[in-house]
Each structure stands twice: as C-alpha cells, then as structure tokens.
Amino acid sequence: MSTAAPAIEQHATLRVLLISACAALGGFLFGYDTAVINGAVDAIRGEFGLSASATGFAVSCALLGSALGAWYAGPLADRFGRVHTMRVAAAFLAVSALGAGLAFGVWDLILWRVVGGIGVGVASVIAPTYIAEISPAHVRGRLGSMQQLAIVLGIFASLLADAWLANTAGGAAQPLWFGLDAWRWMFLVAVVPALIYGALVFGVPESPRHLVAKGRLDQAKRVLRDVLDMRSEPALDAKIADIRDSLKLEYVPRLADLRGPRMGLLPIVWVGILLSVFQQFVGINVIFYYSSTLWHSVGFSESDAFSITVATSIVNVLVTLVAIALVDKVGRKPLLLVGSAGMAVTLGAMALCFSHAAATADGLSLPAPWNMVALVSANLYVVFFGLSWGPMVWVLLGEMFPNRIRAIALAVAASAQWLANFVITATFPDLAEIGLPFAYGLYATFAVISFVFVHRAVRETKGMELEQMTG
Fold it and tell me: What is the C-alpha separation between 94 and 98, in angstroms, rounded?
C-alpha cells in the first residue's frame, strides 16, 4: 500500500506550528521543574540539615514521580486522548509548585516534588507523541525538536529565575517577599507557566491517530484537513486508511504488545530504552541540577556560580536551535554519533581538570589554568549534548515505534529515562565525595559506550512516515 499521496498533500501550516508549540510548553515546565532545584540545593541542605545522601535523594526524588508518570502516561493517553492527558500534567505541575514552595519539612518537600515529577513524566511522554502524530513527515524532526527547545528554555528560565531571586534576597537561604526564603519562591513562580500550559492545551485538537483508534473518523479527517491543509478527499481517505491499517483497531494496545524474542522485549523497545538510559548516563543533569553547587564548591562565589550556570543554559538553548535546523537535513543518527564522541572528549577533559583540585578550609579550590579549562570543557560538553542527545532522543522516541505500540513503548522508554536520571542525580553527591575525576570519568565511559550503541543499533528515521515504522 502506498503512502505517497497523503505525504505529498501534507503541508507545514502555521497552525501545526502553533499547536506543536502549545504541546511543547509541557517541555518548558519539564525543564523548569527539573532544573529549579539547582539554585535551591545548598539552601535546602542547610534548612533541613541534610547529609550528602539525603541531599541527593531530595534533589532526585521528583524523578521517581517522573518515572511513575511516564509509565502510566501511555495507557492514559490511549484511553482518554493526548489532549486530556496534557491537561492532567498541567494540574499536577501547578499543585506541586505551590506545595513545594510552602513545604514545612523535608518529607513534605519530597512529597510535592514527587507530585510534580508525575506531571513532568506525563508531559515527557505525551508532548513528543502528540507532536509526532500531528506533524507532516518532512518537518516532523524539526517540530519534534521543539520539545527539547522548550525543555532547555525551561531550564534557562528556572536558572535565570533562581539567580535573580537569590541575588535579590542576598542569597537563596535569605528571606524575600512575605517572609518566605528565596528558594521557596524558586518553586512558587512555576505556578504561572503551569496554569498557562493548562489553558493553552484546551485550544489544541486531538491527535488524528487517537481519533482513528477510537473510530472517530470524521473528526480525524477534520483535523488532517484543518491542521495539515489536506484538501484532497482521496488523499484524506488514503491517509486514514494508512493509519487504520497501522493501528490494527481490533487490537487494544497493552504492555504485552512489547514482548519479543530478545530478553523478553521487541528489539525496537530495547533501542528506545537504551537511548533513554544513555541520554542520562552521560551525566547531563549533573550539570543542570548541581552546577551552582559544583562551581561554588571549587572556589567561585555563589553569585558567580549562578551566573556560570545561567550562561551554560544559554549555550544549551543556542545549540538546540542549531540541532532543530540540522535534524531533517543531516539526520538523527549522525548527530548522535558526533554528540557521543564530543561528550567523551569533554567529559574526559573535565575529569582531568578536577584531578588538580586542591582541598582548602572552605572545600575545594581549582587553580588556574584548570578552572578555566573546566569551564570551557563543561560548556563544550553542553554544546555536544544540546546538538545531539538532548533533542535527538526525544525526536526518535516520538517517531521510531510502530503506531500500534507507540504510546506504550514511549512510556516504557521514558520511565527508563527517569529511573536512569534518578540514579545519576541521587548518586552524584556521593560520587563527588569519592572524587570529581572519578564521577566525570565514569560519565565519559558511558559516552564512549553510547557511540558504539548508536553505530550498531540505531536506525535512521529521517523523512519516514510514522506508518512506515516497524518493530
């Protein structure tokens, strides 16, 4: 059966761009909620008198909620629709921001962070799924990359807000408005974008693939006609037929669909899981969760540490824009390979730099020229990640699975990603106590392994229709 007709008729309209942007706002909240803890780590540790291990858990606990949210997002999306599920994510994120900002104890804070993590996990699955399903094939990579752009903008916004609030108060642990410490306001301000996200997703249409799965064919045609400007009835009928065939409607998607001959799962599911795991095991979120603490610990002032962190997030935003421009021209796989190689080199350089750190009465000191080499290496590392593993993994997870299992397979892969994120984030304080050269050397090793994995196991999906994806 040919898919050429519908592919020719699809157009990248302004409406599909705006709809994708609304859905990707969930990624903004994803980035904000996960990175906001960066500026609050030291203040929270002092406020509640936490050990290194307890600090690691307080920082990373939201990721357990994210794994839970990602796990259930697929079944919820298949049953109730992509749009309704995005609204649920917005509600969780808004409630969490309010609760965390007003927390009265560490366990109370952990509870609200887990609630927010559930919202983040749901958003991390639904946004790329929805964008992939609503987009024309020839620009799906660029539109799918909007999720990562939104994530890095959310990270930038949270780190900028952290720096501004801390500087305004004279420190993250100092009181600001209404007697609340600055670190509490770092959480509270996230209520605003969560409410905006919830309002905007009320105006986006349901995914045509979900509508076809539910037998609502007229509505699916209307969405294809209005969003992708498909005016030819034969093209519309052919596209609907393609979707129906790929979904196999007599079959209700479930976790059992993912079973296969290789260690119990389909090969394509293992590829998705390992992409997710390697995205985290190269240590990127150590930079975005602990960088202020890290730079402060090696001799930079709190204000300079915040400034360095904000500058790093700006670099992340800029290279993500480059990735969006390249993804549908160069392809997913070549960018992943370049990213893995670059991260291996820069992480190795950071390990070397921190091996020259000297102990002082206040902690550590990184002497010249190693302090500047470490700064340059850290930012180059972010460049290579932002150009490749940051956006490319989300693009691939949104499009690489067959239609019949896409939402559930993405949920499993995203859950694996959050669990991997939790492991890396929770263990970093203890690894740092062993030694920063050991920690960054470990992440460099995973970057090398990720290169081998991509070279051998990842298939290029540039320009393919979703209906052409097979397991």
Answer: 7
Q: Find the domain containing 294 and state its range.
A: 4-468
pLDDT(178) > 80: yes
Distance CA 334, CA 316 (A): 19
Label each residue of 239-283 as H, E or C: HHHHHHHHHCCCCCCCHHHHCCCECCECHHHHHHHHHHHHHHHCC
Distance separating alpha carbons of residues 117 and 99, to the nearest angstrom: 13
Distance CA 141, CA 429 (A): 36
Nearest to 288 by CA among 187, 430, 390: 390
Task: Kindly report the number of other CB atoms within 10 A of residue 302's CB atom.
Answer: 20
Contact 38, 309 (CB under 8 A): yes
> Quick check: 253 pLDDT over 70?
no
Spatial separation of the C-alpha atoms in residues 274 and 267, rounded to whole Å: 11
Q: Beta-carbon neighbour count of residue 471 at 10 Å? A: 17
The distance from CA 158 to its chain's CA centroid, rounded to whole angstroms, is 14
Angstrom distance (rounded) from CA 99 to CA 172 = 18
The radius of gyration of the chain from alpha carbons, rounded to an integer in Å, stands at: 22
Number of domains in the chain: 1
Alpha-carbon gap, residue 98 to 357, rounded angstroms: 39
Q: Which residues contact 319 (CB under 8 A, 6 or more apart)?
A: 382, 383, 386, 387
Residue 111 has pLDDT above 80, yes or no: yes
For 59-94, the pLDDT digits (tens) are 778 888 887 887 788 778 888 888 888 888 889 999
Q: Which CATH number characterizes residue 218's domain?
A: 1.20.1250.20
